[in-house]
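## Example pair
The file below holds two records. Each record gives the amino-acid sequence first, followed by its structure token line.
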Amino acid sequence: MGNNSTEMLYCFLGYGIKNSLSPTIHNSFFQSNNLEGYYTTFNVNSSDLETILDTLRKLNFRGANVTIPHKTDIIPYLDSLDPLANSVNAVNTVLYDDEKLIGYNTDVEGFMKPLRKNIQRFNNKKAVILGSGGASKAVLYGLINANCKEIIILNRTIENARQLVSKLDSDIPISFHELNQKTIDSLSDIDIMINTVPLHKTNTILNFHSNLGIKLAYDLEYIPKETNFIKQMKSLNSDLIYGYEMLLSQAKLSFQIWTGILPNDDSIDGKILSMLGV
């Protein structure tokens, strides 16, 4: 490689990611595990992905995380895919090894791990997913493989939800509907509700009521910790999984792919919570 420094470079590839917590998380992992590594962010347009990857190959580059809108766009520029990333058709982790760029997906297990702490059996559970973009691929894949009883997808654009479902091979009943207040009001007996939409960031107002019967609510939006969605679910006495839990879970799995070490230092949890204003 072109750089003689012994410190390995890791990065986060996305767009509009200046407030990402990933550098804090991964640099803390390097420090607590006494490893030489530096993690930073690169704000990249999709049209520049090939150029940035070619540049990284010439450095002491070891790995990257990938977020929207690049999780699918990056695939043509990689040398190979892990079977899970290939199945989901989405990459959130890249390993540079033996001069090859390999794509992985830690979103699926990163999403499921906090969920399994709350639910052991899924074959009698009805799940509702808000949104069909970004992380929803991993969410849907995880729920299907957990053998959920029924999955309902709500999205503002019906066609996007239809395309997501059309690519799946599953015997589980999966339906999709427009994401609006009327549709939400028509639902009931929801065992799991997962929000993959930046409702708080976009100041989108949706009202959730007790007749929905939401037993567990999982918000993938993590800034702030107490999003509007979480606040409403608290008022309904639903069990809660916060967005930062998936964030940390998938980050630890990415770190393991790069270094062979699964971080077990939970002190990072407190650091992240303090950054979220808790």
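Second record, same layout:
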Amino acid sequence: MKMTWDTRNARVDTDAELVFLADCETGGHTHISAKKRFLQFLRAMRSMHAMPKKVLDVGGNKGTGRWFSATLPSSTVTILNASPKELHGYKPFLKGDASDFKTKDKFDLIILGELLEHVYNPDGVIASASRALAPGGYVYITTPNLACIYNRVFLAFGLSLMNYFPSIRYRAGNRFLEDTNGVFGIVPDHKSVFTYGALREVIGHYGLSVVYADGYDYGRKEPFRTVGDRYYKIPASGFRSRLNDMLPVGLREGITLLCKKTGECKPGEGILTHSVWDL
């Protein structure tokens, strides 16, 4: 869907968007996870005061850059990533560390899609994004929900959580999760997973206020590609999607937040250049 200010309230063709996302994913090094978050982005845009002219996709790849560029044809979409494998020749791009980046330009919209859970210092990501925003700019965040309905049930029975992984090789301690056979690149390195309430509280420390909140699921009726050619099959995808849509935001599998810059982030705030053990 090509979005303009006049068409932002138009009906979204869900099937067409999912087909296009699958096409954007083709040939990439990593998959585009949680495709429903892109559909929620289209709805979140209705809460913005104007169409963004400059967009920064932090941790994005060729596929996400292609989708955002097609969806926002009047915007310049720049990718910031530390890995050349993710770019596949996409331009414009910036090479940098998501936990500590500085940009010459200020951006009207910054995307933090499925990123916070992968970094050691998510405060650095949020602080860097806040510093790179133009006055009144927006940050769009999607990330797994530590307090989703499944985790609450699993933890009550002493089972490992579905989106926080102490081991990046095995899904251990929960027989309901897919076996990986000890293959690296299937288990995500999720180490910084927030609850809905905790994430809202943390972003407030960096001059951001929530203007739109939603929650998505990770269930899709298709094999789920992780890194390279590694696949696993998501269990009960149809059921998960239907259940997720009925739950309150704080219980859904993923957290979606559109945040507006309403305050300032002090230079260096939230940035950690070495281990906390060295402080």
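Notes on the second record: The beta strands are 54-58, 76-81, 93-95, 107-113, 133-144, 208-214, 223-225, 231-233, 254-261. The two ends are 48 Å apart (CA to CA).
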